[in-house]
Amino acid sequence: MDDLTYTLQQLCRRNRDGSHTTQADRMRSLALSARQLREAGFRQMRASSLKGKHALALLDCWQSEGLSTGTIKNRLSHLRWWAEKIGKAGILPADNTQLGVADRRYITNINKARELGSGLDQITDSYVRMSLQLQSAFGLRREEAIKFQPGYADRGDYILLKGSWTKGGRERSVPITTSEQREVLQAAHRLAGVGSLIPAHKNYIQQRNVYDGQCKAAGFSHMHGLRRRYAQNRYEALTGWKAPAAGGLSARELSAAQRIEDAHARQTISRELGHERTQITATYLGR
Question: The pTM is what?
Answer without folding.
Answer: 0.65
